[in-house]
Amino acid sequence: MKKIVAFLTGVFFCLNLISQTVVVNLTCEKRKNPLGIDVGNPRLSWQLTGKQRNLIQTAYQIKVTGEGSSAVWLSEKVVSSRSILIPYAGKTLETGRKYNWQVKVWDNFGKASAWSETASWEMGLLKPEDWKAKWIRPGFEEDSVMRPSPILRKQFSATKKITSARAFITSHGLYEAFINGKRVGDSYLTPGWTSYNKRLQYQVYDITSLLLPGSNTIGVALGSGWYRGHLAWQENKNLYGRSLDLLLQCIITYSDGSSENIISDESWHSSLGPIRYSELYDGEINDARLDKTGWLTNSYDESKWSNVQVQDLPKEHLIATRNEPVRMHEHFPAKRIFTTPKGELVVDFGQNLVGFAQLTVSGKAGDSIKLYHAEVLDKAGNFYTENLRVAKQENIYILKGEGQEIFEPHFTFQGFRFVKVVGFPGDLKPENIKAVALYSDMEPTGTFTSSNSLINQLQRNIQWGQKGNFLDVPTDCPQRDERLGWTGDAQVFARTAAFNMDVHNFFAKWLQDLAADQSTDGSIPHVIPNVLGQNASGSAGWADAGVIIPWTMYVHYGDTNILAQQYTSMKNWIGFMQKNSNNFLWNKGFHFGDWLFYRPGDDNDGRAAVTDKYLISQCFFANSTQLMVNAATVLGRSEDVKLYSNLLKNVKDAFMKEYLTPSGRLVSSTQTAYVLALNFDMLPEELRKQAAARLAQNVKDYNNHLTTGFLGTPYLCHVLSRFGYADVAFKLLMQETYPSWLYPVKMGATTIWERWDGQKPDSSFQTPGMNSFNHYAYGAIGDWMYRIVAGIDTEDSAPGYKRIRIMPHLGGNFTEVQASYLSDYGLIRSHWKIDGNSFQFDVEIPANTSAKIFIPGGEVDGITETTKPLSSLKDIKVIGKEGEYFVIEIGSGKYSFSTGKPLLTQN
Ligand code: BGC
User: What's the average model confidence in pLDDT over 38-64?
Assistant: First the structure.
């Protein structure tokens, strides 16, 4: 009997467990257990998991405890299905403190979860006075030509038993810190790049395990980096300052409850280390013979080192780090080591990437090895660096000569697939060299694979374009003497980027720099952080990043705060356009226009793809104004809704008067003109159909080729599919001759190119002055692949994928497409497959969301879900036929639909 009871109890327990909703993946400000939060009301998010379909949260309760488990916030049981970005609303949070938190939820099955596992966050140094540390600078005179990297050290004693320790560090220039010889943290290129003189980030590290009882040594190396290194063109240096400085504060907490600060101050010493030269564009020279052996250990004799100078420098602009740091990611072994026709020794890593080559070598002291980096080989198969312009991308390592040595650079990065090696002692073997990718440590969230291997390679190229150019700021390219946060490129790619990786914090931080660098007249610079000067600003489609990206982040992540954060900046930008308009026509100033559009022979029959730049600016003026209306609506600012709605009407009227003929033609008869006018709803309803027909005809006239540049390309396929020309859009996607997305793929590209014809069919190159092979802008087609081909989208009215929409489009001879997106609620998946005469469509919807699913073709009677007729399933709401789709509504869970092969008019 006892056994039976035990058995039944066990079964009951298991059943209970199966149906139990569990709360997982707790995050604070979209980071896991972050250190260094400096907002007063950090936002908390979690996910629900449970076996049952249609799982929805009906209420939640949050518990936050501070030091000694004292409760600082126990929320009410809040009746709400909201589970992301809920602002903390307890007692005032204190500087440097750790807070633990848990959440409990109730679900629509009437069950309560257990309290979740405990997560935590730690506050940063909230006020300038919390910084006890002093800014310090090396105490010796610098070699002002080579500007070698200084090193600084301090020995100190931890007198009692340590329970925890944190280091808060920032610098002018880049820093790398070590405690007792071990690297502090695994971030690279810290403190990252911001508009330094207005906003300087510090990082927080848990250094508890690096400290020893008794004597300890802390050492820091500094490099020029973005702060004072060469940036942009000419001999543009010292953009933020001339000297390298360090600010460091370690807070050690002892087991008796006391604490001690170890700070940067006059007690430190400074010297030079092995890094003789270091520049982002040009690379690093590391002479290992100059290594100060043992400088990171306690027994080191620093008597010959210089003192440091304490500097009275500001701390008011110090901020905690909001985005994920740059970290090491993929490691690539040498794919091929070969000698070029010119006789040079070259390593091919098989992937164009950003980071550095790491060398393992043994040789004599003084042997010097040079590593040159390039993206491509030329027509003859030789190492090609002309497109780097003046960036040298050259690392030099001079051996110490003491057995095996490992070299990697510290304060530079290179964009490359090929490395030319000069001076390697002996034979270079695969084990001597590998390539290491560096990029901001954003969580990978999106996948897309299909039955077409070229498209799969295109998707890999899009992702590698993102990896290579999301290096603390979104850069245009990572290799030549540029690598700047070009606003236009960033806005063009933002939505695609947001599918592939979690870019919320990355952009939230960069947008703050955008607002900080915005001119007083509202103009937004071409690059952020702005290193091109006050006048380099205000170009349509570039400056609009200040409106488009906040809106994109809101739609993608459901974060209203980012709209509130950027609201003034957005308004100011609209104000700038308005002030520079004549009767609402913005036809002034410098504009890049449809940058790098493909130019099909200006000469022959007037069909050149040159789009009037002011027609473009008017379209962006309208689009930003529309997004302003949207943002004002979301934030409940009704006065602004009225104001901007009126403005929008006037801007569109002015557009029609100036750029539209009475019969509905645009003055520029280009793809981009029609794409922008249609995408931004510039035309009256009755003229849209014929405008779309003109666009489709234009594409056909070019034999199914695009002619668009940076501004037209992102919307081209969207406009075609929206107006019933998905077949034309698929032809563009599948086009293999240039200009097209697959042309570079056929040419062996492993990233997205800046130019449609960066390398021509005869393997010669486009003009070297503007020919990057790692420029993500044209990768914006990804957004169409994910939202239209795989069909995964969020409803804008329930942003952040709270209400999902899955509406796949079949075409392009795809027989199978599979995509997934890891939203803040959990995994969303769309997988469709045509198998003979049947169509299989699997979807996955995360808990606490709902979805509208569009099943291509099919009638309710012909559709089954895991073999059961659709009509028999209670947990699926049937809506009915909409065009070529059969529409249903579902909640969370995994579903597998089958139907007959859809007859498609769109293919
Ligand atoms: C950059 C671009 C940028 C452009 C402005 C170029 O040098 O690489 O991607 O948007 O300038 O036109």
Answer: 97
pLDDT at 607 (0 to 100): 52
- Which residue, by CA, sits nearest to atom 1 of ligand 1? 476
Query: What's the rounded Cα separation, in Å, for the pair 517 and 196?
Result: 10
For residues 545 and 514, the answer to whether their CB atoms sit within 8 Å is yes
Are β-strands 826-835 and 473-474 bridged in parallel, bridged antiparallel, or unpaired? unpaired
State the pTM of this model. 0.96
Instruction: List alpha helices for 482-612, DSSP H.
Output: 487-500, 504-517, 545-557, 560-579
Residues in the chain: 907
Whether the CB-CB separation of 821 and 792 falls below 8 Å is answered with yes
Residue carrying the six token digits 């063009």: 492
| C-beta separation of 570 from 547 below 8 A | yes
879 contacts 887 by C-beta, under 8 angstroms: yes
Question: In angstroms, rounded to a whole number, what is the distance separating the alpha carbons of residues 98 and 33?
Answer: 10
Asked if 111 and 19 count as a contact pair (C-beta separation under 8 A), the reply is: yes
The pLDDT tens digits of the residues spanning 138-159 come to 999 999 999 999 999 999 999 8
CA 26 to chain centre: 21
461 sits in which H/E element:
helix 453-469
Sign of CA dihedral 212, 216, 221, 227: positive
* DSSP letter, residue 786: I
Asked whether 304 and 185 are in contact (CB, 8 A), the reply is no
Q: On the CB side of 139, how many CA atoms lie within 13 Å of its CA?
A: 15
Atom number, ligand 1, closest to the C-alpha of residue 777: 9
Place of tokens 């990611």: 329
Query: Do 558 and 824 touch, CB atoms closer than 8 A?
Result: yes
- Cα maximum dimension of the chain: 95
Burial of 748 (0-12, 13-18, 19+ CB in 10 A): exposed
E strand or H helix that includes residue 283: strand 283-287
Calculate how far, in angstroms, residue 507's C-alpha sits from the geometric centre of ligand 1. Answer: 19
Q: How far apart are CA 493 and CA 577, in angstroms?
A: 23
The secondary structure of residue 852, as a DSSP letter, is: E
pLDDT digits (tens, 9 = 90+) for 199-255: 999 999 999 999 999 999 999 999 999 999 999 977 799 999 999 999 999 999 999
Ligand 1 pocket at CB < 6 A: 476-477, 482, 486, 488-489, 592, 595, 775
DSSP 194: S
Which sign does the torsion angle of CA 849, 852, 856, 858 carry? positive
How would you classify residue 738: left for phi > 0, otherwise alpha for psi between -120 and 50, otherwise beta? beta
Which residues make Cβ contacts (< 8 Å) with residue 775, sequence separation at least 6? 465, 469, 476, 477, 489, 752, 753, 754
Residue of 387, 486, 539 to mutate, ligand 1, most atoms within 8 A of C-beta: 486
Question: Is the Cβ–Cβ distance between 178 and 220 less than 8 Å?
Answer: yes
